[in-house]
Design brief:
It contains six helices and seven strands; from the N terminus they run H-H-E-E-E-H-E-H-E-H-E-E-H. A hairpin with a 5-residue loop joins strand 1 (about 50-55) and strand 2. With about 180 residues, it is of the alpha/beta class. It folds into two domains: about 1-35; about 40-179, Glutaredoxin (3-Layer(aba) Sandwich), CATH 3.40.30.
């Protein structure tokens, strides 16, 4: 009789262990799935981060970007040929995307290069390009997982993410996602 109780107890412990392991596997899978998402995928709203403006002393926080119009955050590098082509392509179609507020950020440490890019591409002529500045904390790279430039995060008028465009693009593609 004692042996029967031991066998039943062993079977019960074995079944309980299997059930617990199965539950643990499901929990681990859920944790792994969540952890592989980039921050912009977990929180698809416009993030707040600091950008050093071209005067080298003013800090702009993206929290202060007003809602009410679509927003484009563009990561660029002043010496990147793909970025230069993208800016030219956006300039060529600016009439169709003039309602989008553009904020251009770079990780470049050289403010002189940023100013040169600004002047060469006549950025001041475009009233919808609100800012060109330096992402001092490399926030854009870590938040969006950017691997190369240009990279554009498009948001609707409520600051909700619409699309992340990686690589070269043009005004008609940007327009397609915002309208």
């Amino acid at each position: 009789m004692g042996n029967i109780v031991r066998v039943i107890l062993l079977l019960y412990l074995f079944a309980t262990t299997l059930h617990a392991q199965d539950k643990l596997k499901k929990t681990d899978t859920a944790a792994i799935t969540t952890d592989t998402l980039k921050p912009y995928q977990k929180y698809p709203v416009l993030p707040a981060f600091n950008v050093l403006e071209m005067d080298s002393s003013t800090i702009f926080n993206t929290f202060n970007i007003p809602s009410g119009k679509p927003i484009a955050l563009m990561l660029f590098s002043p010496d990147c040929k793909h970025c230069k082509r993208t800016i030219k392509a956006l300039e060529a179609g600016m009439d169709s995307i003039q309602n989008i507020q553009f904020y251009l950020v770079t990780a470049s440490h050289n403010i002189a290069d940023i100013k040169e890019f600004y002047e060469k591409h006549h950025i001041a002529d475009y009233k919808n390009i609100k800012l060109v500045g330096r992402d001092m904390e490399f926030f854009y790279f870590s938040y969006y997982g950017a691997k190369f430039v240009p990279d554009i995060a498009l948001y609707d008028e409520h600051k909700k993410l619409v699309k992340l465009i990686e690589g070269e693009t043009n005004a008609s593609e940007v327009y397609k996602y915002i309208h």
